[in-house]
Amino acid sequence: MAGNKTFTMIKxxxxxxxxxxAIIKMxxxxxxxxxxxxxxxxxxxxxxxxxxVHKERPFYGDLVKYMSSGPIIAMILEKDNAVEDxxxxxxxxxxxxxxxxxxxxxxxxxxxxxxxxxxxxDENAAIEGSFFFAQTERF
Length: 139
Ligand code: ADP
Ligand code: MG
Fold this sequence. Notes:
The chain has helices spanning about 10-15, 20-30, 45-50, 60-65, 80-90, 105, 120-130; strands at about 5-10, 35-40, 70-80, 115-120. The chain is α+β, with helices and mostly antiparallel strands. It has a four-stranded antiparallel beta sheet with strand order 2-3-1-4. Adenosine-5'-diphosphate binds near residues 112, 114 and 120. Adenosine-5'-diphosphate binds next to loops.
């Protein structure tokens, strides 16, 4: 059975552009409830650890630099079928390929600076949520 939690970050480009509020509004209107939220800034070391699965990809170095370049908003979100429904809401990694009406289509600047993160599995949603939040910070 699909889980009811996913993890997201509003990435530095979207935060810097002042799109956090609009993105959170879309998330809430799509039926997700915020279970935990935090404005923070990743160190290069933390960004590297978070994206460790991409270590061998050519874009890894730039991704780590970008993700530690400014504040992000980390959130755990709750909804039935959370992971799949959230990936649909954000759209494809490359905004040029993202469907109309998706968060990335509306707010992403490039394939790298693509406005939001969304977990790709229930297992990773749990790991990524724990990366940022203690049990006492979750509601
Ligand atoms: P997603 O975030 O859609 O799950 P991936 O897990 O494949 O995408 O990649 C993680 C992040 O790395 C992307 O959201 C994006 O910021 C960056 N990224 C992915 N592919 C590229 C690429 N070809 N060039 C530059 N950055 C990329
Ligand atoms: Mg991914």
